[in-house]
Amino acid sequence: NAGVTQTPKFRILKIGQSMTLQCTQDMNHNYMYWYRQDPGMGLKLIYYSVGAGITDKGEVPNGYNVSRSTTEDFPLRLELAAPSQTSVYFCASRETLFGGTYEQYFGPGTRLTVT
Amino acid sequence: DAKTTQPNSMESNEEEPVHLPCNHSTISGTDYIHWYRQLPSQGPEYVIHGLTSNVNNRMASLAIAEDRKSSTLILHRATLRDAAVYYCILSLFRDDKIIFGKGTRLHILP
């Protein structure tokens, strides 16, 4: 299993440009998550999905959009990039276990710089 | 939301045990305690989780206070590769997500 994969690894965007961060998992997990991590800080939840066709906002959703058309893929879209979106973005997935017994698996991250 | 409190940073010597504390005084009876760690330039990785009883796995041990208001992650013999940020997180029973705090940055001295 490759686990959770993210592309690209690095990207530099100009202000106002758009891009899509890709996330794919091969573990057949229903739950998927997008986090961002600013330098020296913890992770903030952007969006999450509990299955194909279902998404919900996390702590910091503004400026981002997501879709979930398949179990495997959970892309994150930035429509009008701003310097405040400079961050490292992590995708994660987990099994459908209820009651808090689950383990989240994280991808290696995408480092995005907006200038 | 139930929150956790951790020290910002800790230091330990290589090959000695490390005890990382976490306070979660507002925990409810069905909340699980999770620990993740993040090595430099990597995504977080799962370490251990528990509900009431102490837990052991190949990476660490988790000691949970009897009143569940605090817990301690124990690394039995720290190595330089254990230098990371350690996150203590509560997984809420009726919630589909876990929320990360700032964690404890662990420095290991050779």
Question: Would you kindly provide a written description of the structure presented here, covering whatever features stand out?
Answer:
The complex is a heterodimer of chains A (115) and B (110). Chain A has 115 residues and is an all-beta fold. Chain A is 0% helix and 49% strand. Chain A has no helices and 11 strands. In chain A, strands 2, 4, 5, 6, 9, 10 and 11 form a 7-stranded mixed β-sheet that branches. In chain A, strand 4 and strand 5 form a beta hairpin. Chain A is globular. Chain B is mainly β. In chain B, the strands form 2 sheets. A 5-stranded mixed β-sheet of chain B has the order 1-9-8-3-4, with no helix packed on it. A 4-stranded antiparallel β-sheet of chain B has the order 2-7-6-5, with no helix packed on it. Chain B is globular. The mean pLDDT of chain B is 92. The chains are: A mainly beta (115), B mainly beta (110). The interface between A and B is medium-sized, with 28 and 25 residues.
Short description:
Chain A is mainly beta and about 120 residues long. Chain A has strands spanning about 5, 10-15, 20-25, 30-35, 45-50, 55, 65, 75-80, 85-95, 105, 110-115.
Key terms:
heterodimer, A: mainly beta, 7-stranded mixed beta sheet, 4-stranded antiparallel beta sheet, 11 strands, B: 110 residues, mainly beta, 5-stranded mixed beta sheet
Main sheet attributes: strand count, strand direction, barrel closure of chain B: 5 strands, mixed
Regions with little confidence, pLDDT below 50 for 5+ residues of chain A: none
Quote the distance from N terminus to C terminus of chain A: 36 Å
| Count of individual beta strands of chain A | 11
Q: Number of helical runs of chain A?
A: 0
The H/E string of chain A reads EEEEEEEEEEE
SSE succession of chain B: EEEEEEEEE
The helix count of chain B comes to 0
Total strands of chain B: the figure is 9
Q: What is the rounded Rg of chain B?
A: 13 Å
Proportion in helices of chain B:
under 10%
Show the largest interface: A-B, 28 and 25 residues
**Strand pairing plus helix content of chain A: what structural class?**
mainly beta
The fraction of residues assigned to DSSP E strands of chain B is over 45%
What is the average of the pLDDT values of chain B? 92
Radius of gyration of chain A: 14 Å
Molecular shape of chain B = globular
Broad structural category of chain B: mainly beta
For the residues shown, what is the average pLDDT of chain A?
93
Which runs of chain B of at least 5 residues are low in confidence (pLDDT < 50)? none
